[in-house]
Design a protein that fits this description.
This protein has 200 residues and is an alpha/beta fold. It has one domain: P-loop containing nucleotide triphosphate hydrolases (Rossmann fold, 3-Layer(aba) Sandwich). It is 42% helix and 19% strand. It has eight helices and nine strands. The chain has a five-stranded parallel beta sheet with strand order 2-7-1-8-9, with helices on both faces. A four-stranded mixed beta sheet has the order 4-3-6-5. Helix 6 runs antiparallel to helix 7. The radius of gyration is 17 Å and the shape is globular. It binds adenosine-5'-triphosphate. The site of adenosine-5'-triphosphate has 15 residues, from helix 2, helix 6 and helix 8.
Length: 200
């Protein structure tokens, strides 16, 4: 692996409370700039479904190999869902850079801290809702969460907002007030005059 791949193609981390608009903005960014960005391939211990290919949908792995990688600090984020483990490895992010694309990571606070401990040289962007009240309205408007889930997301949102304010935790904070305006600000920062945060 060339150590410089993520120097040239620096990964972008986008974090922010659930409902702050990360998916909405990323979808636009990907549509406006095809073949520029990529998502890393996650690891999972669940068996492949028909038609799924190792290394494409997921890096399919065993429980033992997964645990080993956790111990080695090889994951940026990992979690358990329905009895299976899932994770984003540092190597999977580097692989995207190796392919000449900017890896975009949509991750939570703990993941951001972990990214900072790696040699990925990631650029950190925080997408903030204008207020918690507006966030609540958007979460409800999205219609994907029940009452309990909305409450949990709002509690977590407060923690994420406080974290983003800590010195040196984020390089760029964009407030998602008006979607078009916020999108332009994100886009400009990401593209960075064609440098994508690197040196030409
Ligand atoms: N600037 C905006 N003004 C009004 N509504 C918005 C704005 N940006 C996003 N939304 C809406 O808010 C809802 C939440 O947005 P989205 O699903 O993109 O958030 P997210 O950060 O990706 O959430 P999660 O982390 O849960 O995936 C969506 O219904 C979206 O259409």
């Amino acid at each position: 692996m060339t150590p410089s791949a993520t120097r040239i193609h620096r990964p972008i981390v986008i974090s922010g409370p659930s409902g702050s608009g990360k998916s909405t903005i990323l979808k636009r960014l990907f549509a406006d700039h095809p073949d520029t960005f990529g998502f890393s391939v996650s690891h999972t211990t669940r068996p492949p479904r028909p038609g799924e290919k190792d290394g494409r949908e997921y890096n399919f792995t065993t429980q033992e190999a997964f645990s080993r990688l956790v111990k080695e600090g090889g994951f940026i984020e990992h979690a358990q869902f329905g009895g299976n483990y899932y994770g984003t490895s540092v190597k999977a992010v580097k692989d995207v850079a190796e392919q000449g694309r900017i890896c975009v990571l949509d991750i939570e606070m703990e993941g951001v801290k972990q990214v900072k401990r790696t040699d990925l040289r990631a650029r950190l962007l925080f997408l903030s809702p204008p207020t918690l009240q507006l966030l609540e309205e958007r979460l409800r408007g999205r219609g994907t969460d029940d009452e309990d889930s909305v409450k949990k997301r709002l509690e977590q949102a407060e923690k994420e907002m406080a974290f983003a304010k800590e010195e040196g935790m984020q390089e760029k904070v964009v407030v998602n007030d008006d979607l078009d305006r916020a999108y332009q600000e994100v886009q400009e920062w990401v593209i960075d005059g064609g440098r994508f945060g690197g040196q030409l």
